[in-house]
């Protein structure tokens, strides 16, 4: 098992790596608002992270598929604060 130790350490480090504030994610729950929601964020070299997230108290609910920016992390509640990104119109 000794040859597998470096590989297992790398897996454990990737598992504990928190997504970086400022990354872009996609709403994966039915919606996200100030009381409910989950966001998926791509992680390099691994599976995407599914984060419990909320909008600010004055934010309009956003539906599934909306792109959001991760703004901060509330350590006491274990949730991320996000804000919707403006929709980009299609190029004709």
Helix content: 10-25%
Number of helices: 1
In percent terms, what proportion of residues is strand?
A: 25-35%
Shape: globular
The spatial strand order of the largest sheet comes to: 1-3-4-7-6
Oligomeric assembly:
single chain
- Mean of residue pLDDT values: 85
Radius of gyration of CA atoms, rounded to a whole number:
16 Å
Q: In whole angstroms, how far apart are the ends? A: 57 Å
Sheet of most strands: 5 strands, mixed, barrel
Low-confidence stretches: none
Which H/E pattern describes the elements?
HEEEEEEE
Q: Which structural category do the helix and sheet elements fall into?
A: mainly beta
Tell me the total number of β-strands. 7
Index terms:
single chain; mainly beta; two-stranded antiparallel ribbon
Write up this protein:
The protein has 92 residues and is mainly beta. The chain is 13% helix and 35% strand. It has one helix and seven strands; from the N terminus they run αβββββββ. The radius of gyration is 16 Å and the shape is globular. The mean pLDDT is 85.
What is the topological layout?
Blueprint: H1 5-16, E1 24-27, E2 31-32, E3 38-41, E4 49-54, E5 62-63, E6 67-74, E7 79-84
Parallel strand pairs: 4-7
Antiparallel strand pairs: 1-3, 1-6, 2-5, 3-4, 6-7
